[in-house]
Amino acid sequence: MTHRVGFRCDAGVASGVGHLMRCVALAEELCGRGAEVLFLGDVAGSAWAESQLRQRAFPLCPAPSEPRALAELVRVLGLDAVVLDSYVLAPGTGAALRAAGTAVLAIVDGDPLGQEADLYLDQNLGAELRPFPHSGRAADGPWGGRLAGARYVLLRDSVLLMRGTARRRPARPEGPLVLCFFGGTDSAGVAPAWAGALRATGLPFRATVVSPVPFEADGPVTVIPPTDRLPGLMAEANLVITAAGSTVWELLHLGVPTALSWVADNQLIGYEALVGGGLAAGLGPAPDAAAVGVLTRLLADPAAREEYGRRGAGLIDGRGRERVADALLALL
After folding, report:
1. What pLDDT, in 10s, does the model give residues 223-242?
2. For position 170, what pLDDT does the model report?
């Protein structure tokens, strides 16, 4: 029997593409097992995000916001399960889908925001050690089961294929190779400021900055638009500067030295866990004097950089999406 699974998530300039990309990773796994998948939602304002579905031949269908209307659409489409990954869905969405007989997996970051599901996934580091804040009920009670922690991180095919096939370039006299990016849309518009923080160190480096909005840069900084080459660029970099979003798990899997900021409140939980655990350098929320000081140390000290990469390597084994797919399909 072929199962049909829908992914209810959105992506765009304001919301970023993190929700979409972790859903894409799980969709790739399910397709590899013979399931049919389609995406329900809005992917607009980012040509790169739209291309991620088009390249994989994943259909995209507009989705109503009202829970019962969505449940009816799911019935018409003949979906056996729906994956919810959004902070802005109506709280009754999961309940309406379950009442209609559809299995629901909710991907969350800490608080599930009142969403009811058969199964919850929180792939944040240390999530398995934190209480499940769902109306005071246990996760294994009537609200469903829970998959939590680094064992369940969802990684794309392009990242899984990169591990072991690319190596970081040795730092050259012109300085270490730095990659700077803040998601597929840089929704907070911070890439230019962080490029400026790198220049403020006064040290030699070569940087590739990924930005959907071009800006003038000179000297060692090259600005490029969002690209499918990102996993390769990550694997080759001596240092990556990014926000504590879903891409961090890809960097850990590849063992890339990483310096983190955050651009949204929901990223703070991951930032604190990674920086507090010594798995990434902490830059704070803004490219201020303190952040420039951290970057100066990282650019000048190869051993300090590599230590962060060493600590992170091995934490994400790349099989998280297999475990999540096993649990989801067991519901059907």
Report:
1. 999 999 999 999 999 999 99
2. 65
DSSP run (H or E) holding 148: strand 145-148
Encoded tokens for 240: 């990556």
**Could you give the 3-state DSSP secondary structure of residue 156?**
coil
One-letter identity of residue 235: A
All domains of the chain in start order, with CATH: 4-154+317-329 (3.40.50.11190), 160-312 (3.40.50.2000)
How would residue 167 be classed by pLDDT, with cut points 50, 70 and 90?
Answer: low
Residue 20 CA, chain-centre distance (Å), reads: 8
d(CA 191, CA 193): 6
The size of the chain, in residues, is 332
Strand partners, 84: 8, 106
Own/partner pairs for 55-63, CB < 8 Å, 24+ apart? 55/228, 56/24, 56/27, 56/28, 56/31, 58/24, 58/27, 63/8
| Nearest Cα to Cα of residue 118 among 155, 77, 81, 150 | 81
Contacts for 202-206 with beta carbons within 8 Å, 24 or more apart? 202/296, 203/175, 203/296, 203/299, 203/300, 204/173, 204/174, 204/175, 204/299, 205/174, 205/175, 205/176, 205/177, 205/178, 205/299, 206/172, 206/174, 206/175, 206/176, 206/177, 206/178
Proportion of the chain above pLDDT 70, given as a percent: 94
